[in-house]
Amino acid sequence: MTPRSALRRYMLVNFLTWLPLGLMLPVMVLLMTERGLSLAQVGLVTTVFSVVTITLELPTGGLADVAGRRVVLAASAAFTLAALALMAVSTTVWMFLAMAVLKGVGRALSSGPATAWYVDTLHELEGPDADLGRGLARGGAMESVALCAGVLAGGFVPLLVPPGPLPPLAVPAAGGAVAAAVLLVVALLALPEPAREHASAVTARGLLRGVPATVGEGVRLVAGAPVLRRLMLVAAGSGVALTAVELLTPGRLAELAGTAEEGSTAYAIVAALGFAGSAFGSAMAPRAARLAGRVTGAGGPSPVAGAVAGTVLTSASVGALAATAGLGGAAGLITAATAYVVLFAGLAVAGLLCLEMTHKAVDAGRRNTVTSTSSLALQGGAAASNLGFGALATGAGTVAAWSVAACLIMASALLFVRMPRTSPAPAPQVRSGSG
Fold it and tell me: What is the pLDDT of residues 199-209, one digit of tens each?
């Protein structure tokens, strides 16, 4: 395998991992309500998915570090395939709840193994000083491309497909199942497991001992490494930014469009544009680091300065949403959509460069556990913001919630001040649970 072929496989896996989510996004709630679920039951299904994902985030990260990236990614594809096939035919709340459990397991399993596989493979091919930025940027861009394409397809396919064995709203779920099946085949056949230090044959006893030990090592590493502690807090700040737009933008667009139905169409289009902005930001992240390095006199690419620029751009975009909240009609729609797109571009630049710093600060044996911790921090920031911004917007208005969010995101840029170096922490001499 060559670095170029490894990158192509990584990009393909990222596309196939995120395409099902994009396909489901516009129709999932509508499908459940069409099948007779109340909004309260839809909320219960969504909550079950979130709880399962958060609960399994760290254990599945440890599993990928112990059992290997390929097997965990294949298991993720299998669970996602089962979940989406069940979604397409579900007719009761219990079937949808079972779907949510399967989908939550698949989502937790998919958190990090593809990126960990690519980084390990590149290190094997080019050594520990391999340039990660270019490949991670292209992989991140493919995630956003998949979401953008999926949202557009999932929103328009039900309008084009005639009634048949599956109702039109179930067709995107079936398409997502097909994408998951392709991912399963790719993971099993096209992702050879790279050699990793301290890796050993996987046994049931080894998993039972090794996964908790690896999770513990990863959590202790995050708690004891200043650079990782800061990056986890930055991830929580990203959760704040995402909540600020995902919770409050749909209502703003519905207000501007005139009706809830027109607002949902406007949001689908704006969301697709946002994913396109995210793809652009991911692709531009290495260039942003190089430009920031020249501006700051770093003598080379500066991921830290580039991440600061992306964070400031994100904060400014949320501030622009607050500043233009008084506009109506086409002007309001255009400014809201523009701020949304720029926000996702800035968030992608900062997130991609933080991901690069994270992988430089951790060894292969705990790589997936640490990235799962970052994902958990993002979800934690989003969960807290959902409660806080919801209450603030209800009591003081959307402008107040967006203003507070902009200030919190700007404050998170201070975490990059005097950022410690990102050299990997030494791996433990003896791996627990090597079986």
Answer: 544 555 555 56
